Structure formats: C-alpha cells, structure tokens
C-alpha cells in the first residue's frame, strides 16, 4: 500500500559537509544544505501540524544525525492507473528512466506558471539526479523528542514548461540555466505521480558539442538538448492524465475544476505546416463537461420495444412490407417481365 519504496540500507553514506566541499563550484551544489533544510522544515511542519509563521527561521533547529546523508540507486513508485489498476515504475538517476511528473500545486520552477495563474499547466516535470535519505533530529518549536526521524527525498533538476502553441503539438520542455534560482530542488517521494517519457528535440541539437564537458558533474548536463517533448502517448494511463478528470483512478483530478491549460476553447482547423494560420474553427464550448451516459429505465425501454415507430428506417420493417405481393408476384415484379417464360427471357439476354 506504500506509494514508493526505497531501500532501508545505510551502506552508502556521505558526510554532508565533505560532499558539499568536494563539489564546490558546481552550480547544482550551490546552497545545497540551506535548501535541503528548508525542504525538510516544511515536511516537519506538516507532521507537527504547525503553521509556517510559528516556526519562522526554524531551520537552525534541524540537525543531521552523524552529519551524514545516505545514497540509494533506485526508487520504485507505485501508482493507480486510469482504470483503477495498480502499476509500478522504477526510477534510476543513472539511466534514461530518471524523469518524474508531479502535480503543479506551488508553481514549481517558474512562479509565473503557478497553479493559480490563468494558463497554468497541471503538472511539473523533473529529472532525478539523486535519491537519498537522512536521519533528522528536530529541536525547534513543537518538538516531540530527540529521537532521529528518517526522511527520504529526491534531488531533482526542474524542467521549464513552454506553453503549447498548437493543440496538435506535444508540450515542450527545456532546462533553465544551471546558475538560475530554483533550477534544482528537492522532492518528497510521496508527491511523485509516476515516471514520464521525455523525448529530446533532436532537430534542435544539444546545448554543447559532442566532445564538450558539462558544467555540472552532479547534474550530468553534458548531453543536454536545447528542448524536449513530453510524450503523452507512451501508454494509455499517460494519455488519460491529459484528459482531466476522465481517468477513474486519477483521483487527484476529481476535486478541482479542469485546469485552463487542458481546456481548448476553440481548435483551429488542422494546418500541416503548424503555423496555425487556418481561419476555419471548430466551435467547442470554453468549459466542456463530461455528460455521463445514463441507462434508460426498464419500463421505458420495454415500452419503446413494444411500440416501435413505423416511420423508423431501422425499426418496424415488418409493418412496412408490401402485403399485396406474394412470393411469385415479388419475383415477377423484381425481374420486370411478367407473363414471359424463362426461355424467352434467356433468349432476350443472350442475343
């Protein structure tokens, strides 16, 4: 029943101060410890049911047991599919299966893409670059005891979403500059919806040449593409996530209204060039709703079957048959040569 699984082992550990010093100068490691403490503080506040105002600047009360973080190579995400089946995906930062998607609750990397905005995309996307857990001792307001508590977290590099210019194209992603604020972050594994399929835009090329070395050893950015596409069609469950509230198993989509970015007010006529200059439009309501199929009552269905409409082209065919024509008359009427023998008809057709 757990949403995710990370190994319990503590065999691979790093001294957190030494880890930061070893990677000094790496853009991904900038403010690593302060940002990690801010992330952990929010989760501690949720556990203690405290408001943020009550624990302002409480990161100084967070201590890492033995000053160590513990590394893991794999995380398994369990999720419910659109048809209420259970599925599992494995995320490994060292392979191509390293991308995840989350609900867009706080706006993610770009504050202009906040979920409160008029054109917010409903999901956030990130590349996992590390899987860790730490044992935390919290001594701030609302503390319970001095026993260490385990917290699992993912170290991620955020994708930036580019609004789609055409309803016939895939949504596009790109990485913000490594040195930009918020390019990296931490994620609670419980917030991960599932893994996702991110396709490089091969025609645009990469940010660096084949032989060039990346700027960040931790982010593995040497092979970064200039842009990426979100593959909505990798499987049936993924397709239904972009048809908001239609997936029965996607319970998160049943509470809020349809995200504006998933409601096309009017689809332009298909333009193969992708320029979107076609003038014809197919009228679609700006706020489409799903109309459920309701089965008719048994009484009404029986009345309908007992009293078919004689004018219906499909129903009531027996009532519309010509009673004046018997089998012999029907044959003559179909052939159109009443009173002629078979020999005369054959001679006429084979002259």
UniProtKB/TrEMBL annotation:
<protein>
    <submittedName>
        <fullName>Uncharacterized protein</fullName>
    </submittedName>
</protein>
<feature type="compositionally biased region" description="Basic and acidic residues">
    <location>
        <begin position="329"/>
        <end position="339"/>
    </location>
</feature>
<feature type="compositionally biased region" description="Acidic residues">
    <location>
        <begin position="300"/>
        <end position="328"/>
    </location>
</feature>
<feature type="region of interest" description="Disordered">
    <location>
        <begin position="299"/>
        <end position="344"/>
    </location>
</feature>
């Amino acid at each position: 029943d757990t949403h995710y699984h990370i190994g319990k082992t503590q065999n691979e550990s790093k001294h957190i101060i030494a880890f930061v010093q070893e990677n000094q100068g790496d853009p991904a490691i900038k403010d690593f410890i302060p940002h990690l403490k801010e992330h952990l503080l929010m989760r501690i506040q949720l556990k203690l049911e405290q408001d943020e105002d009550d624990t302002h600047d409480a990161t100084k009360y967070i201590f890492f047991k033995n000053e160590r973080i513990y590394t893991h190579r794999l995380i398994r995400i369990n999720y419910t599919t659109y048809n209420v089946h259970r599925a599992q995906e494995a995320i490994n930062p060292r392979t191509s299966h390293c991308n995840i998607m989350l609900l867009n609750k706080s706006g993610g990397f770009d504050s202009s893409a906040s979920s409160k905005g008029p054109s917010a995309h409903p999901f956030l996307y990130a590349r996992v670059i590390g899987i860790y857990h730490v044992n935390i001792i919290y001594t701030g307001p609302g503390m319970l005891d001095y026993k260490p508590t385990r917290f699992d977290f993912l170290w991620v590099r955020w994708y930036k979403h580019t609004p789609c210019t055409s309803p016939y194209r895939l949504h596009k992603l790109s990485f913000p500059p490594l040195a930009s604020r918020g390019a990296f972050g931490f994620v609670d594994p419980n917030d991960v919806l599932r893994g996702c399929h991110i396709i490089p835009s091969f025609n645009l090329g990469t940010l660096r040449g084949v032989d060039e070395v990346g700027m960040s050893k931790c982010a593995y950015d040497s092979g970064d593409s200039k842009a990426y596409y979100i593959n909505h069609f990798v499987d049936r469950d993924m397709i239904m996530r972009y048809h908001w509230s239609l997936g029965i198993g996607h319970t998160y989509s049943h509470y809020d209204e349809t995200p504006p970015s998933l409601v096309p007010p009017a689809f332009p006529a298909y333009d193969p060039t992708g320029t979107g200059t076609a003038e014809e439009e197919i009228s679609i309501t700006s706020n489409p709703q799903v109309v459920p199929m309701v089965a008719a009552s048994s009484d009404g269905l029986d009345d309908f079957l007992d009293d078919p409409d004689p004018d219906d082209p499909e129903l009531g065919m027996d009532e519309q048959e010509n009673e004046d024509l018997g089998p012999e008359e029907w044959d003559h009427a179909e052939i159109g040569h009443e009173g002629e023998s078979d020999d005369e008809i054959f001679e006429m057709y084979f002259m």
